[in-house]
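To: structure desk
From: M.T.
Subject: fold request, one chain
Message: Could you run this one when you get a chance? Sequence is below, nothing fancy, just the single chain.
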Amino acid sequence: KQAELKQIVAKKKAAIDVWAKAHPELAEKKRKWFAREFPAIDWAGIQQKSGSATRAASATVLGVLAGQLENMIVASADLSNSDKTDGFLKKTKSFEKNDFSGAFLQAGVSEFTMSCLCIGMSLHGGVIPACGTFFVFSDYMKPSIRVAALMETPVIFIWTHDAFRVGEDGPTHQPVEQEAQIRLLEKLQNHSGHNSMLVLRPADVHETTVAWKLALENSHTPTGLILSRQNIHDLPARKDRYEEALQAGKGAYIVQDDTDYDVILLGSGSEVSTLVEGAGLLRAEGIKTRIVSVPSEGLFRSQSKEYQDSVLPAGKKKFGLTAGLPVTLEGLVGADGSVWGMRSFGFSAPYKVLDEKLGYTGQNVYEQVKKILK
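Reply: Done. Structure tokens follow.
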């Protein structure tokens, strides 16, 4: 039987060699696709609209990728593409019966099926699959995400509407515990000894560009991108915001730093700009702050101890702000301070009303930090 199988393999390889000699350009393209060799992408040149939602920033990146990565396939389980995967769709067309000339799969309301299809494509190789839906519906995808992490396959998950700011859709559509759950895979190692998943929650449009860059460069594990529905103020920059956002590649980095700061303010996603607002109120009273964006705790924990200590030194007062469960940041804050997070399901109301009612304002950051410093 073994000899028979060897003969079958040899025959197939010979046929492939004949095809490759007859079609050298296609053969080279196939080699590059299966080796995940990408054309050079001018990430710094991607023009983001300042102050946009990170899902919109993701759409901008997808529009660029659609024109440069001809082996990329994007899927969506959202009927109206409000996950903004339509940034890719606008540059191609959907698969249809007997017509696979496009590069977009309208999966319908079938998140688990969609993720399994994309994981299968990733395992086959040669294509770059990414799939999108609301973050709360990652619950339906969990078994397949876990298996993708176990198999170390680089599928990309695009999760939008990342928090209670989904607003009027109500608590059924407002993720709270999902971020803490999915980040457990950042803490679980695969059999190669690495974090079994890369999870990134960018804080503004420029971090979103960097998050996509990291996702494509990650060829060994699944990547999850957690993106906002609502617009977010760009974080302050000393010179070039994109260049500074590249530090997200270390999982956490200092966004703003006062000399001899009194307290560290840390968070991810849209909460970071709220921390910036709170820092302004504190600074007006002479309280100095360091602001840290933490798009990926798992990536941060993978850095050297020296780097981790330089960003979040032990013994310094810390305040964490998260739209998820407090446990999302408690490992980073520890006994040095407190975390303001959600302790219940969300509510149905406009997101700005919810921000005010639930304490996601610069004023509440100011008040909570004052308590820590007493």
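Reply (cont.): The chain has a mean pLDDT of 97. Let me know if you need anything else for the meeting.
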